[in-house]
Design brief:
Helix content is about 75%, strand content about 0%. It is mainly alpha-helical. Helix 3 packs across helix 5. The chain is globular. About 20% of the residues are buried.
Length: about 100
């Protein structure tokens, strides 16, 4: 999982996007937000959820940088919020 956190730390996104994600992550609730983003059913473990969120975010970032008309800023921020929230939970579980 440390590699996953290292990959997350290495991401470079516009500061405003990341600031919005950090603010939104304060109210992140896994049981409410994750099913909406990843699909309903059994919630994956924190590492698997974070990996899937990173894949979705990478696709959204490609859309953002290419100027794709289907790019959704709201969805991108939602995914980043979930990524920050999942990373915080993962770090806390590793520290314990």
């Amino acid at each position: 999982m440390q590699d996953l956190l290292s990959m997350l730390h290495a991401l470079r996104r516009p500061p405003l996007l990341m600031r919005a994600a950090r603010i939104g992550a304060e109210d992140y609730r896994r049981s409410v937000h994750l099913p909406r983003l990843l699909g309903y059913g059994v919630l994956p473990k924190h590492g698997a959820a974070l990996l899937r969120l990173m894949e979705i975010e990478a696709e959204l970032n490609v859309q953002r940088t290419s100027g794709n008309a289907s790019y959704s800023l709201i969805r991108h921020v939602d995914i980043l919020i979930a990524m920050v929230g999942e990373a915080r939970v993962l770090r806390a579980s590793q520290a314990a």
